[in-house]
Amino acid sequence: MDKQLSAVLSAENILFEVAASTRDEALALLVKHLHETVDGFNSQEAMRSLKEREALLPTVIAPGVALPHARLEHMSQPLLAVATTRKGIVFDAGKDPVNLILLVLTPEDDPSAYLRILASLSTALKDVKVRDFVNKASGAQEIAALFTTEITERKDYITASDIMNKEPVTLREGDTLHTAIKTLCSRWLLDIPVVDEQGDLRGVIRMEDLLTQSLPQHLLWMEDLTPILRFQPFAEMLKRDHETKLADFMHEDYVSVGPATPAVQLAKLFIMKNTRQIQVLDGRRLVGVVTLSGFTSKLFWA
What we know:
CBS-domain, 12 strands
């Protein structure tokens, strides 16, 4: 794929102020339009794959932006279509409506095509306030210019900033064990970054830490656990969970990288450091998180 998005995007494949009010309506219009103007793929397979992915993991990648995507058989080249909506369309029930929809279809036998397009799209949108831009845009040509204008820093490889979760769940170092338990369990998380009031990373709280807090070290060396079969240590922990501060037991041995770190380096860190989560820092400030599950899904399922 050419480094420039103009290789896969033209103004004719931008639906300005799309006539859709739901996610599936927007996807259907984009797929239908792309099939009519470019063809080269099975539209029914595309819709089936897109809806399946959205049902499992909504593709809202940033405030106001959705990136529905699918890898399809018998495609010869990547395809990109764009839709804008000032009113907004809900893609994820837990997030605000999106105003910019970027539909990416790539050949199944070219697994890196999506990542290359994602890198270019991320660079093009890096400094853009999407909702403001869409509200002020006058037409498809203006939208196309956003993605096809020469950008000197454009890269042809993906970095931490392209794939990180820019809005991760975080806790404050002054929060209590009670808050940590509630957040970890209710959000089905295994690791949560702990930050201070300035957003600087102070440490990480892990699900294993709940067990560590409830089982004193000397119990781990006992072979006969009969005295604690009724989970007395767990009860004792819960009695003081409102007083125990995260700063007292959070970990400071987290793995961190800068936003420009190449994805291949992230893969190496996941393997060598045996970690589930990599913190992305700008200096000390937490700007995002890359999880092992999110990283591998982008590599192998995108």
